[in-house]
Amino acid sequence: MAIENGHSNGHANGHANGNGAATPIDESIAVKANAVDKVPQLLEEIAKQGKYLTQDGAQNRRQLLESVRSLSYALETPREAMIRYCWSQPTIFAAIELGVNLGLFKVLSKDDKPKTAVELAEATGAEPVFLSRILKHLGAMGAIYEVGPDTYQPTNFAKTLTIQKYGDAFPCMTDCINSGVLAFPQWVKKNGYQAPTDGKNTAMQLGFHTDLHFFEFLATNPEFPVRFMNHMSAYHQGRPSWMDPGFYPVQERLAAGLDTSAPLLVDVGGSTGHDLQEFRRKHPEVQGKFVLQDLPEVIAKAKVLVSPDIEAMEHDFFKEQPIKGARAYYMHSILHDWPDNKCKEILTNLAQAMKPGYSKVLINENVIPDMDADWQTTSLDLIMMTVFASQERTERQWHALVESAGLKIVNIFTAEKGVESLIECELA
Q1: Do 262 and 324 form a contact (C-beta atoms < 8 A)?
Q2: What CATH topology corresponds to 88-162?
Q3: Distance of CA 142 to the CA centre of its chain
Q4: Which GO terms describe its molecular function (predicted)?
Q5: Which position among 209, 213, 336, 399 bears the catalytic label?
Q6: Deepest in the core among 19, 61, 194, 423, taking most CB within 10 A?
Q7: Rounded Cα–Cα distance for residues 145 and 153 (Å)
Q8: Which of 394, 347, 349, 390 minimizes the C-alpha distance to 368?
Q9: What does DSSP assign to residue 355?
Q10: Is 336 part of the annotated catalytic residue set?
Q11: φ/ψ (deg, to 5) at 200
């Protein structure tokens, strides 16, 4: 097959027309703006949204940010996009992780005074010429401010990286996620381009050269689970909670008609109890018994952290639920860790413990819309597929999964795009 301009001719550099022949793609599109015709409208939207930024608060800020991203994508050429994906994203990740490990951001963020590369090298113990190259890239990518030749100041992002739960995100991803994601194209090619269905046979095992499930792999190094939990904690910061006013009608759906002989809320797989403590803080008027359930090693830590009126109980959610007839069995980001067959086991165990006409299952997870999904949710979906053989689910997929366990979805409460919903279920 002949090679022309770096491409094989035929289908490799074109698409099929109505006759089955390839229509060549004009390579000049690679150096033209992706959608220059959309720029005027986007500029109008940005100007309008910018006027109301301080009035409308967080929601308007997110809409403005989406419009700015759309403008950037419209102005960017395909060649620039290719280089951004291939060059800048892996290298800025590496530069940030290096900075976290070196303590660079802590030194830079001691105050807002400009600091030279030489000063930063002296304070961190790094070789000056080496560090200046790293700083140059961090500045070029907006992670820090370049305010003069080899002179830098911290951005708010750089300052935030000095807080451990935020800084831990980068070594966490390197520890147990990124190699699996990078191995994913190889894994699916080998497996016929089908999604994995077994948590012990995913790209994660291929990328990290292990036979262990993700959670087993975390246990091989004491730093891994700490960084992972810190990263998850940081991920949830600043996002609307179902316990906030106007999200889920707590009084109407939980407190009303409460039978005090059984627990109000059982947090299944609830880690060290942060969700239960948040609920009690935000709804002190709702009285009832609270139960936290997780594996023994987690509960041992939780007993030190949670208030004494929260019962911390060892429980494996793949086994029979020991608490019968609770008002609500609650799970936060549990089912997205498991493929459908495992989720059915978890939900069935809950269904068998429920009191008909009274008990609920509350699932706090993402519901992917049919269109205009948020990039955070689609990113997480690919990570879950790569690492757990699981997924973030659409509304149709949630209905099918819940119904397979003898339950039905009564309501899905959603605050805004890209935020976990609360899926309220009852016995079918």
Answers
A1: yes
A2: Arc Repressor Mutant, subunit A (1.10.10)
A3: 22
A4: O-methyltransferase activity; protein dimerization activity
A5: 336
A6: 423
A7: 5
A8: 394
A9: P
A10: yes
A11: -105, 10
Nearest 5°: phi and psi at 182? Answer: -70, -25
3-state secondary structure of 134: helix
Extents of the domains making up the chain: 1-28, 32-76, 88-162, 169-235, 250-427
- Has this prediction a pTM greater than 0.70? yes
2-11, 92-101, 260-269, range with the lowest pLDDT: 2-11
User: Under 8 Å CB-to-CB from 2, ≥6 apart: which residues?
Assistant: 8, 9
Q: Does residue 324 have a pLDDT over 90?
A: yes
Q: What tokens does 40 get?
A: 């005027």
What lies within 8 Å, CB to CB, of 141 at 6+ separation is: 88, 92, 95
Mean residue pLDDT across the chain:
92
Q: Between these two residues, 347 and 51, which has the higher pLDDT value? A: 347
pLDDT digits (tens, 9 = 90+) for 183-194: 999 999 999 999
Report helix angle 89-102 to 128-140, nearest 10: 130
CATH of domain 250-427: 3.40.50.150
Looking at residue 371, its amino acid is M
